[in-house]
Amino acid sequence: MSNLSEYVILDLMKNVSTTNRQNPSKPNNRWILIVILIPLLIFFLFVLKGIVKDIAQLKQEKFQEAEKTVDEEPPIDPDNPSKFIQTDFVELDKVYSISKFRSGMGHDYSYLSGETCRSMKHYFSTYDDKQPNYKYEGLSIENFPTPTLENDVKIFTPVDGFLDFDDSGVSYNQELRVAPSAYPNISIEFQHVQRAPNVNKGKVKAGELIGLVLANQSFDLAIQTDIIEQGVKKIGYISYFAAMPDNVFTKYQARGVKNRGDLIITRKYRDTHPLNCRSDQGFFAKDYLSVDGRPAHIFDLTGFKEMDAKMQVKYPNPNIVKSKDTENQ
């Protein structure tokens, strides 16, 4: 019983005692009232205590359940992940080539993975002979114009999740990140893209427009998650196509991809056919596209040869200016 309730009861009894002394011959109904009120007050306090305890217990159970959900999130095998992709992320009819996972394209992208000197992401290259190729027209990436909804390539979130980004202020070198609701420890990253107009950080639904890429330019798609191996924290890199269900992959099969192996180089193969990297900045030591041939590192979708021929006619002598990002490659 609380101190307050004890005080109330003692005060009532004091008042009754005083009344009895003042009116000894008058019938006292306050004793009857006290006899009724004290059990009711005790019952009320007992019920209130039970309600408070139940609320506290419910909050504790919810907190423990939330912790349990995080702790029991199934471990992710980067080479064999769940098929968490819900829809394709790009206007595929505008894409004509894709670099392979663990290719020698771009630069080394294997930090803290336990693997070395390989690009563990995909580059998507877009082509449109009706739109300018600013790279071939002598502009560096820093001076590219802002992409438009009407003329350029749309990027959509492939999952329900939470969108985040670093707004660098430039038009073509932004990074968008989506954490899937079902796997919040995974980060799907779109690099060298532009945030679409009126897009803000927060919840997004699969298929929702989030970004833009200039026509005739390449951009990166990387997926990564933190993993623990034998007590050591590492980064697990996931191929977009390894996490893609069959109903989405059929779109790529319609563009000439036979199986996921066309777009994913296995760790075993890359380990036995290693690439060399410069130690200074993580760039590849050779132009492996020229050394190994295009098919070893890039898969060309149907229509690439025809579109490439049109672009060569349009730009027979491309005036390529290296950007600050690539001048040391």
How would you characterize the overall build of this protein?
It is built from six helices and eleven strands. The protein is α+β, with helices and mostly antiparallel strands and 329 residues long. Strands 1, 2, 3, 4, 5, 6, 7, 8, 9, 10 and 11 form an eleven-stranded antiparallel beta sheet that branches.
- Percentage of residues in helical conformation: 25-40%
Q: Based on the coordinates given, report the CATH architecture of the largest domain.
A: Distorted Sandwich
User: Which CATH top level class of the largest domain fits?
Assistant: Mainly Beta
CATH homologous superfamily designation of the largest domain: Glucose Permease (Domain IIA)
Query: Which whole number gives the mean pLDDT?
Result: 82
Low-confidence stretches: 1-10, 18-22, 66-71, 325-329
In angstroms, what is the radius of gyration?
33 Å
- CATH topology-level name of the largest domain: Glucose Permease (Domain IIA)
The secondary-structure class comes to alpha+beta
What is the first-to-last residue Cα distance? 78 Å
| Total beta-strand segments | 11
Number of domains: 2
Major sheet summary line: 11 strands, antiparallel
Shape: elongated
Beta-strand share of residues:
15-25%
